[in-house]
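The passage that follows is intended for readers who have already worked through the single-chain material. We present the inputs for a multi-component assembly, then the predicted structure in tokenized form, and finally a short commentary. You are encouraged to pause after the input and sketch how you expect the pieces to fit together before reading on.
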Amino acid sequence: MSDTARENIMRKLAAAVADRPAQIPETGALPIPALCQAEKIEQLKHFMQSVRGEVHVVKAKDWVSRLQDLLRPRALKTLLYGPATPHGKILAAGWPPEDPGLPRLVPYAGPVEDFKSELFQLDAGITGTLGAIAENGALILWPTPEEPRLISLVPPIHIALVDAGNIYCNFSDALTAGSWKAGMPTNALLISGPSKTADIELTLAFGVHGPREVLVLVLEA
Amino acid sequence: MAETTGFDFAKNIRHALGDQQLRKNFKFAMGSMIQKRRLIFADEAEFEQLRAIGSAIRTRALAKLPELLARLEARCTQNGIQVHWAETTAEANATVLEIMQRHGATRMVKGKSMVSEEMHLNHFLETRGIEVTETDLGEFIIQLAGETPSHIIVPAIHKNKAQIARLFQEKIPDTPYTEKVEELNAIARRTLRRKFFDGQVGLSGVNMAVAETGTLCLVENEGNGRMCTTVPPVHIAVMGLEKVVEKLSDVPPLLRLLTGSATGQLISTYFNMITSPRRPGEKDGPREVHLVILDNGRSRILTDPQFRQTLQCIRCGTCLNHCPVYTRIGGHAFGHVYPGPIGEILTPQMVGLREAGVLATASSLCCACEAVCPVKIPIPGLIRELRNASYTATPTGRVPGEGFKRNLPETLAWKAWEKVNRTPALNAVVTRLAGLMGDKAPRLGPLKLWSRYRTPPQVARRSLHAMTRAQGVDDE
Amino acid sequence: MRIYPPKPETVYFFGTCLVDMVYPDAGMAAIRLLQREGLRVVYPQAQSCCGQPAFNSGFPDEARAVARKQLHLFPKDYPIVVPSGSCAGMMHRHYPALFAGDPDLALAEEFAGRVFELTEFLVHVLKIRLEDRGAPVTVTWHSSCHALREMGVIQDSKSLIRQLRNVTLLELENEHECCGFGGTFAVKQPEISAAMVADKAADIRNTGAGTVLGGDCGCLMNISGALQHQQVPITGQHIAQFIWERTNG
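Having made your guess, compare it with the prediction:
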């Protein structure tokens, strides 16, 4: 059925565009503004905060302890992470084994099929990022075998680590600089803040199906 | 509203105009969306530049459509996405069902998809024993109400808080009555979280499909789209064949235009780019990803160089928001999947003029839609073309049902109008006669309809022709 | 941005069918304004209608036949001034497409290039200065859709009103929303049209102004008709007539 449909559709489409003009409009490119790192950090903060993202700029060597300071008041029980990632290893190394004031680290170690019930009960998840986009306040995530997709979706709090040197001016900048077209991952994501909806009388409400809190640590050298 | 003959536009309009609550809801909502869009595109020159780019991207994609679809299919297949083709919605439904049955699946969770509305997918699956749960909050609301979407982007916009509160209380077990948006939200979250967990198949639409990399792109704010496309072991994406774009570099401008125009946002909460099912070593994501490419009349629309522009649409919904007609009658009155200005040009082309040509009368050609369309579709011009097609004596096969409105009274009326206006002496006589009648012309036909709501125009005793002659204004 | 010619000695005046039949005083006022600026105004007596009613209603052949008649009545290279954004839009924006593939295409394009809406001509070509001799008054302004979106002349129209120092211009809350006339739309979809004009009338009433000004007689006929039907004592007036009366003393 699909093959016949394909044949018929393609035939109709080919006939339809046979009158194609010789000159197909080329598109101009969106200009990429020239911003320095400090400006990019400021823009990222501004836009994320305007949609209830929480952004902290910290020294890279201090991020684990700063994270602990931020988590204590939240009294979380569990924190999901990818143990084989570089930041996962640093996190685990710097985490006190039995501190009642801090969440227990939960490694995402096997396939989701073995883990689903527990996953849906966890309090928070932490991921790295490929970078971020200053122009609209978006994090860039390319989930990997070491850091699966659902970490940044299922737990109600998403903690994200951004290297200050990986903030791009805009999306075009990120695509070009990162040569995305050379090979796309299974899933690439832009995340600009906590989940939200305005479907009821256009009244904005946060925390729908994705995380209700996004906590970003921008790591400066 | 079922998409069958028996579509009574006039009745729908009367009903909608008489529904004060509906009009109030829409007036508030559309006004709000207009404001938000204006803020996000405050720099008009920048917007014009951006939408010139958007228009070029979409025009280029349509000009190369078969080539790009072939490339999309090749890349997707290479990446492990299974591509299916469907000429009709029946074929598309059968394809979805077949995938579900192959997996013994009876529980589907759905992200918002207008193409799935074209397919009447929910009804099709439900009558075959499959539980379909809409997970976008607006779609969830109307599913509970047993209604269809009234807007492309905010499907439940015709309902206010009280109506939704009552609906939740009545239809969701153990739910108290509350009008607090945060609480209504929490109820939906709780209910749907269970559905995501248990879902066997997730279905989504596609906002853009990138041929260069075989990537399906999805725009959303709630996270339900990511849930549907990541948690269940099978993901089915349904797409109109016009939604393909050529390159990755086409994405950023279109995304900016889409989120700005649809919801007045710089960017949505999530932009989800899917290129393959779960790869070896990965721990989550669907094991199977399917793409169903649907024609349903689009290939015929592509044939006509003018009407082809209809297919540039990126489904932002902003034409609806700016339309003074849509604001007053809402989406259901249109009786078909796509309402508003885009619906007025798309629907007659998809289902024929006989069934839906009347939609093209629901426009004063004010051009508010055209001024804001992010891909510069000349909607008023295409409405005019559909009117021409409705009356034409020489059908050319551009749109099904051409000439359906031809009738002797109108043909004669316009022929008479033409004769009078081409013949100065005749024009002078008619003008003089009308002037003698003043506002006392018999209230027949158009004048009768006019006079229901307005005093009839007072035709002047002396026309401008007569005055200029009397005042000695030069004739040449 | 349109490029405007220098001030000419002579202009054509295309009155429009609605001005001819329903608002001839407005047409005469516009002619007087142009004459007062030192122009010779030519009003070809054989003119009738720009063709828009048929053009918008699905009868392009009939529209073209009437348009063709107009094309040949304005042969000299004078600007063609039109007291209507809607009719000016029809001729300036749509005539070239209407005559695509037609032997009169070159003529239509040349003609279209010479068409100016009245207020844009007064502002950009004549650079008119207005001296207000009238008593203080409050007015409001309705932007006709085609003046706004096809001809882009609204700022020009309003700038003329603002030159009149005894005139207070109060703006409508939804100035840019269509009044619901739309030519045959008013009779093809009478209830929707009525709902739109009712809202426009309410918006006008809410300003407290005594007069609503416009640059398009279709809109004025629609709005005034609705206001009168509701027995609301607000008058609608064409901007040309308003300006002429206030500056003529």
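Commentary: Helices of chain A lie at 2-16, 37-50, 63-71, 86-93, 116-119, 171-177. The two ends of chain A are 58 Å apart (CA to CA). How closely did your sketch match?
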